[in-house]
TrEMBL record:
PANTHER family for this protein: PTHR32063, SWARMING MOTILITY PROTEIN SWRC (PTHR32063:SF0)
Listed name of the protein: Multidrug efflux pump subunit AcrB
Xref: Pfam families: ACR_tran
GO MF, one annotated term: xenobiotic transmembrane transporter activity
InterPro entries, A to Z: AcrB_DN_DC_subdom, Acrflvin-R
Species for this entry: Algoriphagus iocasae
Transmembrane stretches, start-end: 12-34, 333-350, 357-377, 383-407, 428-449, 461-486, 522-541, 838-856, 868-887, 893-912, 951-973, 979-1005
SUPFAM superfamilies: Multidrug efflux transporter AcrB pore domain, PN1, PN2, PC1 and PC2 subdomains, Multidrug efflux transporter AcrB TolC docking domain, DN and DC subdomains, Multidrug efflux transporter AcrB transmembrane domain
């Protein structure tokens, strides 16, 4: 095959050029994203029910929806939480579920349930979670001093949002902090009382003047006209002029009896930029869009906004493209330094500028052609797939060096240039294919991990498979062809003498080899002891998902645990931000209820979220301590989480479920256990190291109870008192003005007094028109009650989160505690998912090792020789662990990728070393038949000399290419540094392993006799 292709170099060269051209065209159309467009198998159903208690929402809404959704296909978990005015149901599906169909199914079931839900309840929102839902940036819209904030909200909603949506690649634009204009009617109670009238007279007058007559038309000859009442109201002036008839028949304008004004609707939530109220526009990209093209367009649009709308200031914050740019920059750095150092090392070892030139052509060619495979597998260019390409680059250089070195060695043996290219490739072809297959055998099975990890590994596995497959084609076809084209006209006689640099290295190797050969038993014992010692270093390493990145931003999530309003919440956050003034670069806050369409978390007035960006890490740490002390000293009831701001990875891998949760259900009442019972029971809980779950958290409230006896005595209808209470303390909407899709509510203005005063000053009328104080018929008391009602598919539950280090050891105690109180107890949480994933990972890695063994057994046609390769792996892993520990790094996703890179190169070197030994044993078969040890010794010694140069070159080029990252700074370097430590540590030990451990193990474990069959 190689001979056939090399006989037609022009045709092969043009074929590769055509593939490169197609790849460049494909590359221009590939989407560029931060993360792969993964469907997270979760759907959230949100319910907004104003003025409803948690009990009412659970009983009237959530329980009905849960019953309707329990039959969904692929549903694994269902959890709901009912709070004051809001409720959420989180549906978790199996990862094999088609989320597009699940989303449609959920919406259809919600539509069917509409008739079973309260009439005054709006349709529940159904939110589907996707990685593309993570906003790529946030646009801050800050009104300048004196500018109407409602007009700015209309500008953002009607103009800015639409202009951003028109940018290519934008899928959704979401806004928080919008303010709406309403018309308020504030009745004059004294004037009404003097005229013997009530608020209802005003309400009736406004409602009657704002009615449409739909579908009514009049005929005028051959024409027909639709009828429109001219009595509709549009503005506060129209309402003020409305006539009202008094009881004595007089007609007076409404403005004599009430004040009517435009006002801003009371806010349940705010957005702050710094200390100032503002709006925020979050921008979400399409899955197929290129982030590197979208972000410049967005920034250009913001500059245009600044010119077009001078009454508003704009700023761009939390740009998530920084992570992607860092990954692309790291790949470019790897290519640049890989090429430079490969050139330098090859020049030192081979002394010919043409060899580095060949590698310089092959590296970018392989990389570009691999994007064709991206296109066919519908992959995007993202951090995950780019890390897969980075994995393959190390082995790509490795393959190129091995092939070029073998061709050069064949020329040194006297073969013609054509035969040297053919024989040089054929001799290492089997070993290189096996090494690539073993790397894929270790890596590709990780795709079958369940959950989001497996979904992420798919992109990485395809990227690795793509670049390694292409690298083999390049190494077997393009490299020898380029060698043939560049060297065929060379008249220079090849110098068989090695250069002085390599001679010194060779002499050092010989010294080490002779010492190990003279004491093989001691040497093999030392290596065997090093295997468990190296692996034990892992116990000294801390484990985490992502490496510690020097983040200059921090977030504060706080729950005040007090019945405060949104305005008070805003004031507290503004005071906190003012206290930090001058220390931060950016600060933005989400306070109370958020208006985002895609927000799937809890919407509570008592919650706030603060984001801060600092200039240096030292300032950040100092201010975090300051914030913590401020909250603890001023708001001891508050619970808060303060730490690093989550990036896109954190948001993707974050879990809403607690680590270890003990849940219980009251088997008799199927309701939450009353507080009077629950608190004593919790004092008997098997461990004291716990915290209350949502279903046990308490909040203060005021409970009104109506005095039925007095209502009956004074002949006052119950509905009269309820109606008065709803007007005083609820949001009473008289009617809505609708114009061209814009809705302006007309509402009774809420009195700003304390509720005790209102009960004493407001009256209700009896059937004889006498008026009585409302307080006569209403009793009130303060009490604590459960803040949330939590439920799953089995019904209402309460829970505690266990904080012990080994919570599962107390499982039997938890069951006994529940049984003694007639409670059904179950354990759940991230602990069990992590344990399941770990068991699955161990099983997959065991399968990977078996695959690796089978591939090598087929390559070497031996059951023993593959074990030598397998035993080299823990030595390299131990070296990686050692370097990670020395530099204070952790075991994380990036260091794990580094381990795979290192193992791929180590396996490659070990396979080639054993393959060379096998071929040399065949060469010295006659000697080995007579003197087995002498024949084997000659094969081992010569194989070491032959493979010394490529082993050193691949290790040195890889290590030198990675070293600059160790001394770099910034987000990209922080991410890649653990990977670099793992590769450098593993290759340093791995090089010694390939040079000395492989021949040692071969000597002891492979029979010392002529091989009947050998792999070539």
């Amino acid at each position: 095959m190689v001979r056939f292709l090399l006989a037609r170099p022009i045709a092969v060269f043009m074929t590769f050029m055509a593939m490169i051209v197609f790849s460049v065209i494909v590359l221009s159309s590939l989407p560029i994203s931060l993360l792969p467009p993964i469907d997270v198998p979760q759907i959230v159903v949100k319910v907004n029910y104003p003025n409803a208690s948690p009990e009412a929402i659970e009983q009237n809404v959530l329980s009905t929806i849960r019953e309707g959704l329990i039959t969904l296909n692929g549903l694994e978990e269902m959890d709901s939480k009912a709070g004051s005015e809001v409720g959420t149901i989180r549906l978790t599906f199996d990862y094999s579920t088609k989320m597009e169909l699940a989303y449609i199914d959920v919406n259809e079931k919600i539509d069917r349930l509409t008739n079973s839900l309260p009439e005054d309840l709006g349709r529940p929102e159904v939110i589907r979670i996707n990685t593309s839902d993570i906003p790529v940036a946030r646009v801050q819209v800050i009104p300048k001093e004196g500018i109407d904030e409602v007009e700015v909200s209309q500008l953002a909603e009607n103009v800015l949002k639409k202009r951003i949506e028109q940018l290519p690649g934008v899928s959704l634009v979401d806004i928080n902090g919008k303010k709406e204009r309403i018309i308020t009617v504030s009745p004059n109670d004294q004037a009404l009382a003097a005229l013997g009238m009530s608020q209802q007279n005003i309400i009736n007058a406004i409602q009657n003047s704002n009615r449409d007559l739909p579908g009514i038309s009049v005929k005028d000859g051959q024409f027909r006209y639709y009828l429109r009442l001219a009595s509709r109201v549009d503005t506060p002036d129209d309402i003020r002029k409305l006539p009202i008839r008094t009881n004595d028949g007089a007609i007076i304008p409404l403005q004599k009896l009430a004040e009517v004004n435009y006002e801003t609707k009371e806010m349940l939530g705010y957005h702050l930029y710094g200390e100032q109220e503002s709006l925020v526009i979050t921008v979400h990209k399409q899955a197929s869009a290129k982030m590197n093209e979208l972000m410049p367009e967005l920034k250009e649009s913001i500059e245009l906004f600044k010119t077009d709308y001078p009454q508003v200031e704009f700023d761009l914050t939390q740009d998530q493209s920084n992570l992607l740019n860092a990954a692309i920059s790291n790949l470019e750095t790897s290519l640049l330094f890989g090429g430079i150092f490969a050139f330098a090392v090859l020049f030192l070892f081979m002394k010919d500028y043409r060899l580095p030139l060949i590698i310089g052509v092959s590296l970018p060619s392989s990389l570009v052609i691999s994007f064709l495979i991206f296109y066919f597998f519908d992959l995007s260019i993202n951090i995950i797939s780019l890390s897969g390409l980075a994995l393959g680059i190390g082995m790509l250089i490795d393959n190129a060096i091995i092939v070029l070195d073998n061709i050069t060695r064949k020329r040194d043996e006297g073969l013609s240039i054509f035969e040297a290219c053919v024989e040089g490739v054929n001799e290492v072809m089997g070993a290189l294919i096996s090494s690539v297959m073993t790397t894929l055998a270790v890596f590709v099975p990780l795709v079958f991990l369940s959950g989001i990890s497996g979904a992420l590994f798919f992109d990485q596995a395809v990227a690795v498979a793509a670049i390694l497959s292409v690298s083999l084609a390049v190494a077997f076809i393009l490299l020898p062809m380029l060698y043939l084209l560049l060297f065929q006209k060379s008249k220079k006689v090849l110098d068989k003498e090695e250069g002085p640099f390599f001679k010194r290295i060779l002499s050092m190797y010989e010294i080490g080899y002779s010492k190990i050969s003279s004491g093989r038993k001691i040497a093999i014992t030392c290596f065997m002891i090093l295997i468990p010692l190296g692996l034990m270093v892992s116990f000294l390493l801390k484990t985490e998902g992502l490496p510690e990145i020097e983040k200059l931003d921090a977030t504060l999530e706080i729950e005040w645990n007090e019945p405060i309003g949104a305005l008070e919440n805003k004031g507290r956050i503004q005071a906190l931000v003012k206290k930090l003034e001058g220390t931060y670069q950016q600060a933005e806050s989400e306070i109370g209820v958020r208006q985002f369409l895609l927000f799937d978390g809890e919407n509570s007035i008592q919650q706030a979220f603060l984001y801060l960006l600092f200039e240096t890490q030292e300032i950040k740490e100092e201010q975090i301590k300051r914030i913590s002390e401020h909250i603890k000293s001023n708001y001891p009831e508050a619970s808060f989480v303060l730490g690093d701001a989550p990036n896109a990875f954190d948001q993707l891998f974050s879990s809403n479920s607690p680590y270890y949760e003990v849940r219980w259900k009251d088997l008799s009442s199927k309701e939450p256990v009353e507080e009077e019972k629950m608190d004593p029971w919790l004092s008997q809980f098997p461990t004291q190291n716990w915290e209350r779950g949502p279903g046990l958290q308490k909040e203060s409230s005021v409970v009104f109870s109506l005095r039925s006896d007095k209502l009956a005595t004074y002949e006052i209808p119950l509905s009269e008192v309820q109606d008065q209470i709803s007007k005083l303390f609820g949001t009473f909407t008289i009617t809505d003005i609708r114009r061209f899709g814009e809705v302006t509510p007309i509402r009774l203005k809420e009195p700003g007094e304390r509720f005790e005063n209102l009960l004493r000053t407001k009256t209700v009328s009896a059937s004889d028109s006498a008026s009585y104080e409302l307080a006569e018929f209403v009793n009130y008391e303060y009490e604590d009650h459960y803040k949330y009602i939590t439920a799953d598919r089995g019904g209402i539950y309460q829970s505690v989160n266990i904080l012990d280090e080994n919570p599962d050891e107390m499982k039997s105690d938890f069951f006994k505690w529940g049984q003694s109180k007639d409670l059904g107890v179950e354990m759940t949480g991230q602990y069990f998912r992590d344990r399941e994933n770990l068991i699955q990972l161990v099983g997959i890695l065991a399968i990977s090792v078996l695959l690796l063994y089978f591939i090598l057994a087929a390559q070497f046609e031996s059951f023993i020789q593959p074990l030598i390769v397998v035993f080299t792996l823990p030595l390299g892993i131990g070296g990686s662990f050692l370097v990670l520990w020395i530099f204070g790094a952790s075991l994380n996703v990036m260091s794990a990728i580094g381990l795979v890179v290192m193992l791929g190169i180590m396996v490659n070197d070990a396979i080639l070393k054993i393959d060379t030994i096998n071929r040399l044993r065949e060469k010295y078969a006659d000697i080995e038949e007579i003197l087995p040890e002498e024949g084997l010794e000659k094969a081992l010694h010569e194989a070491g000399q032959i493979r010394l140069k490529p082993i050193l070159m691949t290790s040195i080029t890889t290590i030198l290419a990675l070293i600059p990252i160790v001394f770099s700074s910034g987000l990209g370097a922080d991410l890649q540094r653990p990977l670099v430590y793992a590769v450098i540590g593993g290759l340093t030990i791995g090089t010694i392993t390939a040079l000395y451990f492989v021949p040692l193990a071969y000597w002891f474990f492979v029979p010392k006799k002529k091989l009947k069959t050998t792999a070539s």
